[in-house]
């Protein structure tokens, strides 16, 4: 298939620049992938779309305030984006500067791009592929980020982060530090909605996938099969596997909240049966893939020609998904991270035969 098979027209004003005041006040476009039927609902309607036998699977990763600003000893400005923590004192990062940074380069950090740097710093240790390995002398990296870091809002949000983003670009159940982008389908859930789900007896479990900056990298290959997927770290534990087995035993569906939960479960089920998994994944899901674990999904709207749009197209059918996106544009839905959501069920042939 071609990258151009996954494009659509989106008016710029439909890209949500800020979240709604109420997390669960978003709209929910429901797409029946088997029939291609579209319905327009509210996100608070989600409990009514689920059975008490169903299981919701959430990604509990927590977004780091991963963007830092600083200057080299020569005075050159540097933007740092932490991609992955390496223990307390080291990290793999993206560096944006006018010149490459050699090992031994010290970057003195500032509170914002225009502020004067202080004594806190990072030292460049070397390269690992496209990333730099840096050390934080004398202070854990997470503490540096807490004190000086900014929330790494996606590039299509055309404003600087502010204090509100520390809470709103974060799910209410986030517990494990490690992401540079939010698992955005989870941003719609709040305590009231969890109470409504519990009131219907709908169970939940958690996995972890730390979202990397590669999630925003465009697909450059014309033939999508030639795209090389970025690596992200994930964990699917024994508790999640047991919860899924129990849902299957009672006849319920496994409902993944977000594409990160989808990729976590499908990676853990790659050998045919779901099993605990810990490690990196480069799983690239596009039409033709047969899902082994996921029966339904909640997801936000995704960028044209993105790997995430290809994933949801594999699940609910490319033509049906693009028709749903066209309907969402016509109905003035809000798009991307701070936007509205979809509830998807699979098209014919999307699931591996039982």
Automatic annotation (TrEMBL):
Pathway: tRNA modification; tRNA-queuosine biosynthesis. GO terms for biological process: tRNA queuosine(34) biosynthetic process. InterPro entries: QueA, QueA_dom1, QueA_dom2, QueA_sf. It comes from the Bacteria. It catalyses: 7-aminomethyl-7-carbaguanosine(34) in tRNA + S-adenosyl-L-methionine = epoxyqueuosine(34) in tRNA + adenine + L-methionine + 2 H(+). One of its GO terms (cellular component) is cytoplasm. GO terms for molecular function: S-adenosylmethionine:tRNA ribosyltransferase-isomerase activity. Keywords: Cytoplasm, Isomerase, Queuosine biosynthesis, S-adenosyl-L-methionine, Transferase. Its EC number is 2.4.99.17. It is an enzyme of class 2 (transferase). Transfers and isomerizes the ribose moiety from AdoMet to the 7-aminomethyl group of 7-deazaguanine (preQ1-tRNA) to give epoxyqueuosine (oQ-tRNA). Belongs to the QueA family. Monomer. This is S-adenosylmethionine:tRNA ribosyltransferase-isomerase. It comes from Pseudohaliea rubra DSM 19751.
